[in-house]
Fold this sequence. Notes:
Oligomer: single chain
Strand order of the largest sheet: 3-5-6-8-9-10-11-12
Order of helices and strands: EEEEEEEHEEEEE
Largest sheet: 8 strands, antiparallel, barrel
CATH superfamily: Lipid/polyisoprenoid-binding, YceI-like
Structural class: mainly beta
Helix content: under 10%
Amino acid sequence: xxxxxxxxxxxxxxxxQLPAAGRWTIDPGHAEVxxxxxxxxxxxxxxxxxxxxxxxEIGDDPSESSVEVTIDMNSVxxxxxxxxxxxxxxxxxxxxxxxxxxxxSTSLTxxxxxxxxxxxxxxxxxxxxxxxDVVYVGSVGDPWGGQRAVFSASTEVNREDWGLTWNVALExxxxxxxxxxxxxxxxxxxxx
Length: 192
C-alpha cells in the first residue's frame, strides 16, 4: 500500500489559517481587477479588467511573501463600448503603446487573515507606490485535484499620479471624471 503525502493547501500561523508556503498562480478565469470612479462628481461608474495573470510566492514567514501581477489593459470593460474605446485611447491607458499594467510587491505585513501589501503599480510606463488592503478569504480543493486560495483586496488611488489627467470642467463646478478611483480585486490562485 502506497501512502500519498499531499501537503495541505493551508497552515496555521500564530493561530490563523493561511495559505501554505509555495508558489500560487492566479487563475485568469477567476480573477478581476475592478475600478469605481465618479461621473459628473455624482454617479458611480464601474469597470473591470478581465485578463489578469501573475503569481504569489507565499513564504514560510508570511511577511516574506511576494506578489507579481500583469493586467491586460485591452481587457477593460465598463458597460459602454464608446467609454471603453476612450479608456483605451491616449487620453487614458494608451494601450497601443502600453498594453500592460503591472504590480510588484515591495513588502507585506500580515495580521491574522489580513495583510497590507506595499508595492509598485506601473500604468502607461509610470510607476507609483500603492498600498493594498488584502483579505485571505480561504482555501478549497477544486474538482480537478488542485488547491485554490481566494483573496480580496482594495485600495484608492489618484489617477493623475499616473498622468491620467484627461477631464472636462463642469459649468456648475467640478469635473466630469473623478480623480480618486477605488480599485477592488477578487481572485483565485492555484497552488503550483
